[in-house]
Design brief:
The chain folds into two domains: about 5-65 and about 290-465, Jelly Rolls; about 70-285, Jelly Rolls (Sandwich), CATH 2.60.120. Helices cover about 5% and strands about 40% of the residues. The protein contains three helices and 35 strands. Strands 1, 3, 22, 24, 29, 30, 31 and 35 form an eight-stranded antiparallel β-sheet that branches. The longest helix is centred in the middle third of the chain and has 8 residues, at about 225-235. The two termini are about 25 Å apart.
């Protein structure tokens, strides 16, 4: 059995500002906290920040990031839309851009830079048709360096944070989502080119335009360090100019939030305001994506996070509540499970063939009752809250701010010491019918009491979410 709160996984939406405690002044939600997992890790063990219940990564659970939490610039390749401004051509340097493809590039797509294809001059961060992200720095066709990521990153609809650095001698790095991943090749000696063109976002002179979204670009007159890049990545959310620290701003000459509604995009640091060519529109990226980094699961790879056999997250015939955010477009799968296959289940959350999320509670291997939500496989983030009240032997299940479904159990639940899993049903117990999950899970919490109606409202926060800070 556990204390007032058995575990919490850090979560998907922007949430409320922290005032007077970790739940923005809602102090009762933090009472008895036993374990806390941010789920900000890009892979591997998800660390328990409070207790000793680290979650094991089975078959490489990956991640999803939110991207810039505001309005971003939206480029349509068919309209040849791009932004342009005064060039930057100096060494050493670093540059940053957040980007998301809406379709795969047929050829090179320049995200930010001043490269001119006809003269092989200038620099640029590019998305190649091969799937690699590259960083070019050309003096001319005989003197250049080309730095290319080792792993293809062409997933349409996914945000990427890319930072490039290059020193005075032409040696460079590429960071993708805060991680350095670079293969270098070139010839001669890279140097500043007198033939470089204007600064462009979303357009390579003489080659192609970009089809997708860009946010938060910047240029520095120094090499950014790993610490700098991690700060700018900001756990997958990025930073607006107003959020940059003094350390972030050292050597910074231009920074664009790209959150202007339309027309000229302002430089919040320098004087390189960007001209709108062919009407680059804007879209709001705030509501549709997670708060920061979320765990992302794929059935085909049998991915899950787990804690070996324990009673910390089991309850038996005692009050408890469970809350978590989830996002999936796939019917079927099990986002959360506790128990031992075939003999002793505690509880199961699974997506039904009817597109609903189902919550069941058990005595040994027998289901005592079930409740469901509305449609959950709509590729949108949803808050799920389940409760068990021992005095009335009743379970409830609520999605977002919908009216909760309820059921009176046919018997009393019993406690099992089975394993706990996120992303799989019985992932660790040799089950012949293991059921995995394709989708994302973030900010999950377990309490050894029944949440009040007001606390459920507070956790949802009209869709913004209330999360542990």
């Amino acid at each position: 059995m556990i204390g007032a709160i058995s575990g919490i996984w850090h979560g998907p939406f922007a949430g409320l500002l922290v005032r007077g405690g970790p739940f923005s002044g809602h102090g009762s939600l933090a009472d008895g906290l036993v374990s806390y997992w941010k789920l900000d890790e890009l892979s591997g063990t998800r660390v328990d920040s409070v207790g000793a219940n680290d979650l094991t990564d089975n078959n490489t659970v990956t991640y999803s990031v939110a991207g810039p939490q505001h309005v971003v610039a939206d480029f349509e390749e068919t309209n040849s839309e791009y932004l342009s401004g005064t060039t930057f051509n100096s060494l050493p340097m670093s540059a940053q851009i957040w980007w998301k493809m809406e379709s795969g590039p047929a050829s090179q797509a320049l995200l930010i830079g001043n490269y001119v294809g006809s003269s092989f001059s200038g620099w640029g961060i590019n998305q190649a048709s091969s799937g690699a992200v590259s960083f070019w720095y050309f003096k001319d066709n005989s003197n250049y360096n080309d730095y290319t990521t080792e792993v293809a990153t062409t997933t349409v609809g996914r945000w990427y944070h890319t930072v490039v650095t290059i020193d005075a001698a032409g040696a460079g790095k590429i960071y993708v989502d805060g991680v350095p991943t670079t293969v270098a090749w070139g010839t001669g000696s890279a140097a500043v080119s007198a033939q470089a063109g204007a600064l462009h976002l979303g357009f390579m002179s003489g080659v192609s335009t970009f089809d997708g979204q860009l946010g938060q670009g910047g240029i520095w007159t120094r090499e950014l360090s790993q610490t700098d890049v991690t700060s700018l990545f900001n756990a997958g959310r990025g930073k607006k100019a107003q959020q940059l620290t003094a350390a972030d701003k050292v050597g910074l000459v231009s920074y664009w939030n790209l959150d202007d509604a339309a027309d000229t995009r302002a430089d919040y640091i320098g004087s390189r305001n960007l001209t709108d060519n062919n009407t680059v529109l804007s879209v709001d990226n705030t509501a549709a994506l997670p708060h920061n980094t979320a765990a992302s699961f794929l059935t085909a790879n049998s991915e899950s996070l787990s804690k070996a056999s324990n009673t910390d997250l089991a309850f038996g015939d005692a009050d408890f509540s469970i809350a978590f955010w989830m996002k999936t477009a796939i019917t079927g799968g099990c986002p959360m499970f506790h128990g031992t296959y075939g003999t002793a289940y505690n509880y199961i959350f699974d997506v039904t063939p009817g597109h609903l999320l189902q919550f069941r509670i058990f005595s040994a291997g027998s289901s005592l009752g079930a409740v469901t939500t509305g449609t959950v496989d709509d590729d949108a983030w949803h808050l799920i809250i389940a409760t068990f009240t021992a005095s009335t032997n009743t379970i409830t299940l609520q999605m977002d701010d919908d009216v909760a479904d309820s059921d009176t159990l046919s018997g009393n639940p019993t406690e099992s010491a089975g394993a706990f899993s996120i992303g799989a049903f019985s992932a660790l117990n040799g089950s012949p019918t293991t059921i995995f999950y394709t989708g994302k899970v973030d900010e999950a919490a377990v309490w050894s009491r029944v949440l009040t109606a007001q606390e459920c409202i507070d956790l949802y926060a009209a869709g913004a979410g209330l999360f542990y800070a």
